[in-house]
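Task card 7
Instruction: Convert sequence to structure tokens.
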Amino acid sequence: MARLRWQAGMSTAEYAVGTIAACAFAALLFKIVSSPEVRKMLSDLISRALRLAG
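Output:
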């Protein structure tokens, strides 16, 4: 029983690390997507798709 109590906090710590990692990944993706080069590429891709659709 003492061993189970010792490990009870592990899941909370793992969730905290996972949440921090997810936030860091989201920040990295936001930085990449908001860069001028990627914005232009996405804009060109959407424009081309709209032209092809009619």
